[in-house]
Fold:
Amino acid sequence: MNGSRHDRSGGRRPEPATVRFAFTPAAAYVRAARLVAADVAAHAGVATGLLDEVRQAVGEACTRAVLRHRDRGLRDLVRVEFSIGDRFVAKITDNAQDLRARSGDRVGAAAVGGDARASDHDALEEDTLSEEITLIVLGGLVEDLVVTGPSADGGTTVSMSWPLPGSGSQADH
Amino acid sequence: MRGTSGDGAPEPELGLGLSTVGDYAVISVTGEIDMYTAPQLREAVRQLSSEGRMRVAIDLTPTEFCDSTGLGVLIGARRRLTDAGGSLVVVCANPRIRKLLDLTGLDKVLDVREAVPGE
Structure:
């Protein structure tokens, strides 16, 4: 990533930049991911008024990914990528190949993962609710939102983008 | 107070202040509600109901951040309290969180108010 704020006041556009990282699917790291998102977006020049939206949306997508991994007892890393080009693009990829398991399967998957909350019915129910709400929040919050997958060899990817000043693509899709 | 986890990573902050206003036990939430901190809020509501405090108000006005996990806790708390003959009021004069409640339609499901009843 470049060390200075992108100059979007005109002239030659800077080279596209990428920030990529991955984290263990644990709740404790979701905050770090959303704070990095807001910071990278600010650095890229995303309008100040949209930074809360970026933080919330990336947090929701990461929460969803962690819940999907937790469901399946997966310890694979959740992958996050931000790219700065014509727009600021955030991609959050999980590795949960199947759609969310049914209630009975979920307890089993949590037990395989050694999750002590497997017996906590309320927490599981709220997790189910939360995954559904993440998509509702994302759909309401982000105009340019695409969720792909799961594919045969991978999980799902939440792709979102926001306009950058001077990019000629101010309007969201 | 911001703590650190075993590997030194900073932990999200969540503050839960308990008070009583009229018939309501009020939980005033400061800091960030996300999937890491939400269990603390869930437990606080559970603790109140185990003490027979079935009329609960969760005050999100001073809350810095709330994600879908927090919304899930609100829905779960409402269900548990209502099932037990009580009620949940969500107090929120915070535009950022009001927006979240609006876009999920939860403003119509939850009893959302500007202030604790009787305040």
About this structure: Helices of chain B lie at 38-50, 68-83, 95-104, 106-109. Residues 1-6 of chain B have pLDDT under 50 and may be disordered.
